[in-house]
Amino acid sequence: MEHAFLVALLLTDATVRVATPLVLAAFAALYSERAGVVDIGLEGKMLAGAFFAAAVASSTGNPWLGLLAAVAASVGLALVHGFACITHKGNQVVSGMAVNILVAGLAPTLAYAWFRQGGQTPLLPGEARLPQIHLPGVEALAGIPVLGPVLGPVYRELIDDANVLVWLTVLLVVATHWVFTRSRFGLRLRAVGENPAAVDTAGLSVTRLRYQAVVVTGVLTGIAGAYLSTAHGAGFVRDMTAGKGYLALAALIFGKWRPWPTLFACLLFASTDAVQVRLQGVPLPVVGVIPVQFIQMLPYVLTVLLLAGFVGRAVAPRAGGIPYVKER
Amino acid sequence: MPESPQTPPALETRNVNKWFGANHANRDVSLAVPKGTIHGVVGENGAGKSTIMSIVYGYLPADSGAILVDGRPVAVRSPRDALAAGIGMVHQHFMLVDPFTVLENVLLGAEGGVTLAAGMARARAELARLARDYGLEVDLDRPVGDLPVGAQQRVEILKALYRGAEILILDEPTGVLTPQEADHLFRILRALREQGKTIVIITHKLREIMELTDNVTVMRRGQVVANLATAGTSREELAELMVGRKVLLRVEKAPARPGAPVLEAAGLCVRDGAGVERVKGVGLTVRAGEIVGIAGVSGNGQSELLEALAGMRPLAGGSVRLRGEELADRPARFTARGLRALGVGHVPEDRQRVGLVTGFEAQECAILGHQGDPAFNGRFLMDRSALFDRCAAEMDAYDIRPRDPRLPAANFSGGNQQKIVLAREIERNPDLLLVGQPTRGVDIGAIEFIHRRLVALRDQGKAILLVSVELDEIRALSDRILVMFDGRLVGELGPEEADERRLGLMMAGVVDAA
Question: Which CATH architecture group holds B11-243?
Answer without folding.
Answer: 3-Layer(aba) Sandwich (3.40)
